[in-house]
Specification:
Layout lengths: L4 H15 L3 H7 L4 H9 L6 H8 L6 H5 L2 H28 L3 E2 L13 H11 L3 E2 L5 E7 L2 E8 L2 H10 L3 E4 L2 E4 L1 H5 L4 H17 L9 H35 L17 H4 L3 H21 L6 H10 L10 H10 L11 H12 L2
Antiparallel strand pairs: 1-2, 2-3, 3-4, 5-6
Helix pairs in contact: 1-6, 2-3, 7-8, 10-11, 11-13, 11-14, 15-16
């Protein structure tokens, strides 16, 4: 069955809601790391072929259960596609030349019996934010006689809710309060304005906070999330490369760890043997490297060198390539499908069964 990966992610989100699971819990049940879960559910990264198979063959979330959600999301996608051209053109033009309104400060000067939304309005007014006809909360930049808008929140209510959850504003008794040190990052001037804007936007975009937003808003702000996600993915690649090398070089003495990860589950509980874990790390390393390159992310030269050495792509075989090469030879990855020979399979089974 050929399943659209984007729709599969949407189906998983709906399944999680129906079961009362957070995206973090669902990702853990499917064997995804916390960072991988964030990037998949935010749309930052795409599912690999191996991950699609893992989802579709999951015992905890059987395929028939997921298939109930796929037709609905396919229909929604078709409707969005029909409307997308006019909608996207309209919203993109509004970001460039939109008739945005300046957010006025609260008319309630005293903080007694003042709604929390009015305190949030004071924060937005202080930062000179504006609201577009779409309802988006934006900052404004004027340069060369042009005014452009950078989206921060999909609507006023979302911005208020986020500020409350972040501890920027709160209500106690009959009064409302704001922590301006938190709001400004203990800075002042343009630095504090940038901190406030970037911090609020990042909170709203973080998949862990499960903030509802339209696809058009998510696409418009995606570039702001890329920097943080790239840093996480580069660190993840660095950790995986070193983990693969450590396992390959100390194979005889290396054992599956029983130390719980961020989800409270250890590799020893998940994998049948250490070869299964090693194979997963090798393939994940290849896919992660491909995703970073495909997204145009600049990989630090020392990390790229380390990666190429490990996969013998630097013109000379890695000392322990005999443990890694057979895995790459028989498993499909980015690019053309593998064409494994009988000898490739013989070597693969030899290291697998010898684990």
């Amino acid at each position: 069955m050929k399943s659209d990966c984007d729709n599969l992610i949407l189906a998983l989100k709906s399944l999680a809601r129906s079961k009362g699971l957070s995206q973090k819990e669902l990702g853990a049940s499917l064997g995804f790391s916390l960072n991988r879960t964030k990037n998949l559910f935010s749309g930052r990264s795409k599912l690999s072929g191996e991950e699609v198979l893992r989802i579709l063959t999951s015992r905890e979330h059987p395929l028939p259960e997921l298939k109930r959600y796929l037709p609905l999301y396919q229909l929604q996608q078709d409707l969005w596609d029909i409307e997308s051209e006019n909608r996207d053109m309209s919203e993109e033009s509004e970001l460039a030349v939109g008739d945005a309104q300046t957010i006025q400060g609260s008319l309630m000067t005293a903080n007694v019996n003042k709604p929390l939304a009015e305190m949030a309005r004071d924060v937005m007014h202080d930062k000179k934010w504006r609201v577009l006809p779409t309802g988006w909360i934006c900052s404004a930049t004027i340069a060369d006689g042009k005014c452009t808008y950078d989206p921060i929140a999909p609507d006023f209510a979302t911005a208020v809710s986020a500020m409350k959850k972040m501890g920027w504003i709160w209500k106690r008794g009959g009064g409302v309060f704001a922590d301006w040190n938190k709001i400004n990052g203990c800075a002042s001037g343009e630095v504090s304005d940038e901190y406030c804007e970037n911090t609020l936007r990042s909170f709203i975009l973080d998949p862990e906070n499960d903030v509802n937003m339209s696809d058009s808003f998510r696409q418009a702000v995606q570039k702001y999330w890329v920097g943080a996600a790239d840093a996480e993915e580069i660190n993840r690649l660095r950790n995986v490369v070193e983990n693969v090398r450590r396992m390959a070089e100390h194979w005889a003495d290396w054992e599956l760890s029983d130390e719980p990860n961020e989800y409270g589950v250890s590799p020893k509980q998940i994998y049948v043997n250490k070869f299964d874990y090693f194979e997963q790390e090798v393939l994940g390393m290849r896919q992660l490297h491909f995703d970073l390159l495909n997204d145009g992310t600049e990989i630090p030269s020392d990390l790229e060198t380390r990666y190429r050495e490990t996969f013998s792509e630097d013109g000379k075989p890695y000392k322990y390539s005999y443990r890694i090469d057979p895995i790459l030879k028989v498993n499909d990855g980015p690019g053309p499908l593998v064409d494994a020979s009988l000898e490739d399979w013989r070597r693969y089974y030899a290291i697998r069964d010898g684990s």
